[in-house]
Design brief:
The protein is built from eleven helices and twelve strands. It is α/β, with parallel strands linked by helices and 335 residues long. It has one domain: P-loop containing nucleotide triphosphate hydrolases (Rossmann fold, 3-Layer(aba) Sandwich), CATH 3.40.50.300. Helix 3 packs across helix 4 and helix 9 packs across helix 11.
Amino acid sequence: MSELLAARGLTRTFSWRRPFQRPRRLVAVDRVDVAVARGECLALVGESGSGKTTLGRCLLRLLEPDAGELTFAGEDLLALSAGELRRRRRDFQMVFQDSGGAFNPRLRVRQILEEPLAIHDLAPKAGRRAHVAGLLGKVGLGESALERYAHQLSGGQRQRLGIARALAVEPRLLILDEPVAALDVSVQARILSLLTELRDELGLAMIFISHDLAVVQQIADRVAVLYLGRTVESGRRDEVFRRPQHPYTASLLAAVPVPDPRRRRPPAALSGEIPSPLDPPPGCPFHPRCPIARDRCRREVPALRTLASGTAAACHYPGEVAVAVEELSAPDFVG
């Protein structure tokens, strides 16, 4: 399949300062390569602070990258003017993590869904109500929600509303930022089922941002694991989950709860907190928490390289900790 969205060397930094101190440079996204094909779902995974949301916003130019290349269907997105980008936004939309703050509290559901139709001139004014009702039906909400405000909906209903708003302009790509993180397990399952159905029906490409590997397993085709703004591992979901090549990925998999109480997993190798991006460690950014770190790891930054399995990993000693989780992760995550 051909690439729909592709980023090469994407970088985003922020300037941060305390009173009476010099500004400091925070690298939130550090030379990341990302690509997603038509009809494919790519998951961006990692702990809070790994750069997933910042990367997602940069991919849509909601945040402007400092460096790198970004193309959509072969077109250079970074070369578009503000007006051209606004017209192009119909092709790529985002579903935000905070469904409680994603909508104008003064607008009713009908108005929230009519607004993108008006902006992109996609439906005549007289026919917008029927169009909006159809969108609500598509995401499992009834017409009774049309005249309600977003705050009157449950968390799951608001997330469905966010998906409906994104679908209103018939995009080719959806970026979903932790769309089920704050929902009950039963509601999560319904939202994931809805996304899978919409993807199959509409041929959508998706970038799914999540820290929950059990959720990612249900929906993703490929996985990119981020740590301190860098890609540390990427590849086909089944391959990454069966044979993780980076110690960070292996630790994330080992930390996932096992549903069978009769089975026990060894303690996860991951310990400590993710370092501050204001003061990243030298060498490999993961080495302070890595169970196999050596002197080389403390001196040299490992390059992201493709291995014989097809998985890419940024590790000097790929696969050394994979044996510890392979036997346990494969049955639980891969059917």
